[in-house]
């Protein structure tokens, strides 16, 4: 069982996933910083304060902080849009290689002889 686990962990897919998670976490920190330090203040200039965290619905002794939820949704939408723009920019910067037409292989000697035979037979019938 330990050997199977070791083989599972050593597979390329698991390692790729681990690298993806680590890079994703680092990228999330960059995007969060971009949103919190650049995008939100820019939006704040036009809209005013966009902090809804003080909105609370109180029912009995329960406090429903729906303002914090609204803030999270807004931040998610902003982050998703920024990631969309970044990916779009990266796709433009990273040029895709031009797709070449598939190379037609040179016919073998046997294929050439068969083609000559077919041509001779067609000429003989005409």
TrEMBL record:
Chief location: membrane
Gene: mscL
SUPFAM superfamilies in the record: Gated mechanosensitive channel
Assembly notes: Homopentamer.
Secreted recorded as keyword: no
Compartments where located: Cell membrane
Protein family according to the UniProt entry: Belongs to the MscL family.
Transmembrane segments: 17-35, 42-62, 68-87
Membrane-protein topology: Multi-pass membrane protein
Native organism: Levilactobacillus tangyuanensis
Keywords: Cell membrane, Ion channel, Ion transport, Membrane, Transmembrane, Transmembrane helix, Transport
Protein name: Large-conductance mechanosensitive channel
């Amino acid at each position: 069982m330990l050997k199977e686990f070791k083989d599972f962990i050593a597979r390329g897919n698991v390692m790729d996933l681990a690298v993806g998670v680590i890079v994703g976490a680092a990228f999330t920190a960059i995007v969060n910083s971009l949103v919190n330090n650049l995008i939100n203040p820019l939006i704040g200039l036009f809209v005013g304060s966009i902090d809804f965290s003080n909105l609370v619905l109180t029912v009995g002794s329960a406090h429903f902080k729906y303002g914090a939820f609204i803030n999270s949704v807004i931040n998610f939408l902003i982050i998703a849009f920024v990631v969309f723009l970044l990916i779009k920019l990266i796709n433009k910067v990273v040029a895709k290689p031009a797709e070449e037409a598939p190379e037609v292989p040179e016919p073998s000697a046997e294929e050439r002889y068969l083609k000559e035979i077919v041509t001779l037979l067609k000429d003989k019938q005409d």
